[in-house]
Amino acid sequence: MTIIPTNLRNEMQRSYLEYAMSVIVGRALPDVRDGLKPVHRRILFGMHELGMSPDRPYRKCARVVGDVLGKYHPHGDTAVYDALVRLAQDFSTRYLLIDGHGNFGSVDNDPPAAMRYTECRLTALARDTLLADLEAETVDFIDNFDGSQQEPIVLPARLPQLLLNGSAGIAVGMATNIPPHNLGELVDGLGALIANPDLSVLELTRYVTGPDFPTGGTILGQSGIREAYTTGRGSITMRGVANIETIQLRGRPEREAIVITELPYQVCKAALIEKIAELVNDKRIDGISDIRDESDRDGLRVVIELKRDAYPRVVLNNLYKLTPLQTNFGCNMLALVDGEPRLLDLKEFLQTFLDFRIEVITRRTRFELRKAQERDHLLQGQLIALANLEEVIALIRAADDTATARLQLVERFALSETQAEAILQLQLRRLTGLEASRIEAEHQELLIKIADLTDVLNRRERINEIIRTELTQARQRFGDTRRTVIVKADGEIDDADLIANQEMVVLLTQQGYIKRLPVDTFDRQRRATRGKSGARMREDDVVDYFITCCNHDTVLFFTNRGVVYGLRGYQIPAGSRTAKGTPIVQLLPIPIEEKVTSIVPVQDFASDDYLVMLTRAGYIKKTALAAFANLRANGLIAIGLEEGDELRWVRRARAQDDILVGSRAGMAIRFRADEDQLRALGRTARGVKSMELRKNDELVSMDILSCEQRERAEANGDCGPWVLVVTAGGFGKRVPFSEFRAQNRGGMGVIATKFRDEGDELAALRVVGCEEELMIVTARGVIIRQHGDEISQQSRAATGVRVQRLDEDDTIVGVAVVPESEESTAIACAPEEEAEEE
């Protein structure tokens, strides 16, 4: 026996530090790359090894626990089973990784059945986003605890699992508590970060708006979310969903009741009911006469019946204050990065995951390239043998043994030993002409694949595109809507409260660059002048769409695929008149193949207005504006489209308004937006026919005549409002609205204008009044701002007057009306008024 003297203090410090790091790395903290602790990783890997895929039958949980204990995780069976159960509980895990069959516990904190009774298998999400590519050498493997098995250090996750499902753990001297998030929002955030790596944390919160808990509920305010995302630590106030209802029980008069339908995350329903009953018995809450748990398989429902003289809102506020119906989630965003615990903000979480995905895809591509090259190497040898078939057969027949034949093949045809061995193993049926052509075809396919894989390894943008494609596919398969609603807390200052509600112009170019400018950037000019104060874009880009609105408006972006996205006006980056703008894909998760074709500003979704949509093929429909109030970060379907059709124009209207549609050949049709002509349809409907077009004609414009404008036109005759007709060649006129008679939808319409120059065509039809200000924009980005009464009034048959002199290669692309806003006008015009006084 050898006795080594040592200092007790040093030994205790060293041993305790080793123990602490062992607990931190080996048990309590998740890895930022796949978001899993070792026990979860080993459970999923063990189930993968057992072949427990979602298309296979369930197997006993005891089998999984025993396999994991014996091979990878030598700890107690209860610890492993509890970890497995949590991955299968839909009230604990936002996106389930294990599909459980049997009693896996409840939100009442009931324990699960014993592992010998319950069954499980992997979910499709776990198989396809965590365990896919595991055999493609994407991650490193290490020996298990006794060296008899190999286990992965980390799983090749395709989604940021740590933010997706969150994590909680207590180590030695540190702890982690990360909330779950919505899959679609995380994908949008990753896409935005790929497009612009310089995004700040606050800019990322446009996409990742906040935690999304499996039990739903609400989050009060955004201050706690922002603190957690920017510093790694923060307190998020969660509140259950409770509504005040009037209930009627048999033989009893109507009573007011508080009905709880959603609970804060990790709140036990039975404990909540017990706490409420305790407060009632202690007379700390007055006004409650009965509590009933009416929850069933359809959902949670706790009914708190109130006394006759109780004030429901007061009772509910007391429940929020005194019970877990309102509680806090303490975020502590701690995770292992390169084996060391680190406190991360939102951007660091996403960026670290993207770096890991780049490594995984690079290793997977190298693996596939090596396999393709090895296979092609064999095919090249077989093609050489087929090209010299008679000589190869004679050489093999003359050889004494296999080794001699192999050596002679290598020497005669300059083959490798692997190729020679493959030729010797070639079956006689592979020598037919058909099989030879198949070998040649496979060789050509492999050459294309090898070139493509090599290109992926040489170009970072190809890897980024693969990451984006895999994320989009995951969102399409597994994405869902948010369950947790984020509401503004009382007294909390919103971003909009800090920004003046000015009028602004939003410009979007054909190349997808967007910017906003104050309306007063553009001085009013007389017609037929060149717009020297116009907002010129780059020489190789042209303005494709523009609107005027206010900073606080919600701006809806409709794409040609019929999908709508939303931003607040002030979220659109401001720019100068000569600035290029910001790529819209950095602001919205718009796929590359989609293009914004219409922009609509909305101040209030609570109105009874509709959105009228018109497609290029001529289908038109109206949908209630309220249907677009709850926009998702990844967009909403606005209209159902046929193959080859695309959404082109969207306008806001009421049922009493008139719709005006114009074609490129100068025809126009007017019809009512009421239920007789255009009944309201849902978001996914296609619509009905709007206008009969002549051969080679197509729709180019749509606008709305409000019922007030129509009544004013009928009362005042030719004193307005008018239809502003503008051609691409720079000619325009105002036509009395009475000259466009109302027709039934689907007709040919009437002539809106005649053209002065051959090849000219209609660019826009807009309903205007004499006091309204107009902004006319050209393809080169030149903008003219002027009053409507500055444009000549003429009949439908006239050709109009020149409203803007254009460069030889320039055309007019659109007309917008400056919105009327007393508040914003005062803000925008104040500097001009001061200048005039001086």
From TrEMBL:
GO terms for molecular function: ATP binding; DNA binding; DNA negative supercoiling activity. CDD domains: TOP4c. Its EC number is 5.6.2.2. A motif (GyrA-box) lies at residues 525-531. GO terms for biological process: DNA topological change; DNA-templated DNA replication. It catalyses: ATP-dependent breakage, passage and rejoining of double-stranded DNA. It is found in: Cytoplasm. It is an enzyme of class 5 (isomerase). InterPro entries: GyrA, GyrA/parC_rep, Gyrase/topoIV_suA_C, Topo_IIA-like_dom_sf, Topo_IIA_A/C_ab, Topo_IIA_A_a_sf, Topo_IIA_dom_A, Type_II_DNA_Topoisomerases. The keyword Nucleotide-binding applies. SMART domains: TOP4c (SM00434). Few gyrases are as efficient as E.coli at forming negative supercoils. Not all organisms have 2 type II topoisomerases; in organisms with a single type II topoisomerase this enzyme also has to decatenate newly replicated chromosomes. A type II topoisomerase that negatively supercoils closed circular double-stranded (ds) DNA in an ATP-dependent manner to modulate DNA topology and maintain chromosomes in an underwound state. Negative supercoiling favors strand separation, and DNA replication, transcription, recombination and repair, all of which involve strand separation. Also able to catalyze the interconversion of other topological isomers of dsDNA rings, including catenanes and knotted rings. Type II topoisomerases break and join 2 DNA strands simultaneously in an ATP-dependent manner. This is DNA gyrase subunit A. It comes from Gloeobacter kilaueensis (strain ATCC BAA-2537 / CCAP 1431/1 / ULC 316 / JS1).
